[in-house]
Amino acid sequence: MESLSVLLLHPVNAYLEQELDRRFRLIRLWDSPPDGRAEFLRANASAIRAVVAYPGYSALAALIDALPSLEIVASFSVGIDHVDLPKCRERGIRVTNTPDVLTDDVADLAVGLAIAALRRIPQADRFVRAGLWKAKGDYALTTRFSGKRVGIIGLGRIGLAIATRVEAFDCPVNYYQRTKKDYPNYTYYPSVVELAANSDILVVACLLSEQTRHIVNREVMEALGPKGVLINIGRGPHVDEPELVSALVEGRLGGAGLDVFEDEPDVPESLFTLDNVVLVPHMGSGTHETRKAMADLVLGNLEAHVLKKPLLTPVI
Amino acid sequence: MPPGLSCSWPTPSSRSLSWTSQLATVSFLSARALLTVELPAVTAELMGALSKLELVLASSVGVDHVDLAACRRRGIAVTNAGGAFSDDAADYAVGLVIAALCRVAAADAYVRRGSWPDGGDYPLASKVSGKRVGVVGLGNIGSRIARRLAAFGCAVSYNSRSPKPSAAYEFVPTVRDLAAASDVLVLSCALTEETRHVVNREVMEALGKDGVLVNVGRGGLVDEPELVRCLQEGVIGGAGLDVFESEPDVPPELFSMDNVVLSAHRAVATPESIRGTIELVAGNLDAFFAGKPLLSPVEL
């Protein structure tokens, strides 16, 4: 399989890089200086048949156009908004992602962020570390999590995993997506605004597309209300971020737990001083166990492609 | 308040006085019931001054601050917060488990101090789903922790004084063996003479270098100086702590550790829990004065 030349866009995972290097002919994009990338690509263009992409390190039209021998884009992610799918379709390039393996991690983090936001766990941690427990006495009361109505946007794999978890906390589950499904225990709402109006906690768990961009806008935040909490473990652009910041600052929204942001790694600085938010740096699938499983899927898809076997997790 | 009853309490201005000196100065001496809020010690001496005392109502679940042996001798009944705190305590325990494994508090601090743009991707966390969780004490709180973490796909086993035939989880006869068979050890048992320092160095060594300890019970369940050393030496991987041995003092060595989550004994501090406790105290008092069975008696 050494004949397959694979372009890796970013040193995203040491195990993945090591195994790509062992099993294929690995070309590291970052071996070239940033201003020499176009020339580097031209020099390797005829050899590169596979690209391993990653959110933030995109396989967009320009890259695909520069690689005439490209046959497959294997993304080290479940979301593939960073891959130009129409272009790939047009060129007959296969695309794979890494679904399922990060479902549990993202669902775990969603629930963890919801509990942390309602019970203000990082705030308690800051309070104790600053020595304020002794100096100022008891930390303020927080809000119960059990029994809160949880509204999930997108009841796909991750949304369902979140639903299973919060049911164990006696939380009624509501959901919105384009089509109603046959879940006897979950209540469907035909719009995000209605979902938000009937939920205490709103979780964004859908894929990012043109239809879901800014799916949480000012109107949705108003419906969620001053006691409502928004959890985003999807993608930053799902939420109108300037509107979110002003809703939080003005107290029109109760709180938020955010793993993703519109312009990562930049986070609006006005969030840094808010006590009603929990901010984490896009770590949804960032566990040792899951990164290895994702890497194994990328490698398995590339090997299947070389051996002309069915791809393990094809998107196209 | 039923007719014929009266209620007295120490006044804020007299808080500097000891309980017993206050009792000598005001008309507590006819009290039949004593309500303790938070965790002041209810000693044999205090109860000795109250010759009519028949009932101690604790606003907490744990009653380690009440001299239960003295109550037993005197035939004084004791009630606790029963199940009023159970959901919040279990939620908080799960929140601490996730926060400790995923380093949520440290990650929040990382973002807030503006380190993400230059620091790049945050160090990988440890997975929650599928972890082996050992629960010490499968009472109202422990059983709720078990049910919640089972929904995360965690394999739950437990230790308690005796096996619970109705529990769907595996019973492990010693805390050391439970720790050895677990990735996460959660403490949700009462503090008694038997459970004081139930987590010692041997238990932490059994839990291991990737193991995480979560304590929502009482600080005294853990040998705290040993815990600090075990964290410093990497004997265990991390901790989520809501309680400490001498609150509000927290060992300052913990303040610089990224693998611990610290909290100020807040697991049950929600308006819902407090309302539930007040209702339970009122229900116990009604039952007591009506000569009916108490709602949440503590076994003496």
TrEMBL record, chain A:
Domain of life of the source: Eukaryota
Official protein name in the record: Uncharacterized protein
Family matches, as InterPro entries: D-isomer_2-hydroxyacid_DH, D-isomer_2_OHA_DH_cat_dom, D-isomer_DH_NAD-bd, NAD(P)-bd_dom_sf
Family that this chain belongs to: Belongs to the D-isomer specific 2-hydroxyacid dehydrogenase family.
Gene Ontology cellular component list: cytosol
Keywords from the named record: NAD, NADP, Oxidoreductase
Residue span(s) of domain D-isomer specific 2-hydroxyacid dehydrogenase NAD-binding: 111-284
D-isomer specific 2-hydroxyacid dehydrogenase catalytic domain boundaries: 6-315
Molecular functions per Gene Ontology: glyoxylate reductase (NADPH) activity; hydroxypyruvate reductase [NAD(P)H] activity; NAD binding
SUPFAM superfamilies named in the record: Formate/glycerate dehydrogenase catalytic domain-like, NAD(P)-binding Rossmann-fold domains
Taxonomic source organism: Triticum turgidum subsp. durum
UniProtKB/TrEMBL annotation, chain B:
Keyword Aminoacyl-tRNA synthetase: no
A GO MF term: NAD binding
Location of the D-isomer specific 2-hydroxyacid dehydrogenase catalytic domain: 30-298
InterPro entries in alphabetical order: D-isomer_2-hydroxyacid_DH, D-isomer_2_OHA_DH_cat_dom, D-isomer_DH_NAD-bd, NAD(P)-bd_dom_sf
GO cellular component, one term: cytosol
Keywords assigned: NAD, NADP, Oxidoreductase
Boundaries of every D-isomer specific 2-hydroxyacid dehydrogenase NAD-binding domain copy: 94-267
CDD domains: HPPR (cd12156)
Pfam families linked: 2-Hacid_dh, 2-Hacid_dh_C
PANTHER family attached to this UniProt entry: 2-HYDROXYACID DEHYDROGENASE-RELATED, GENOME ASSEMBLY, CHROMOSOME: II
Family of this protein: Belongs to the D-isomer specific 2-hydroxyacid dehydrogenase family.
Name by which UniProt lists this protein: Uncharacterized protein
Organism ancestry: Eukaryota, Viridiplantae, Streptophyta, Embryophyta, Tracheophyta
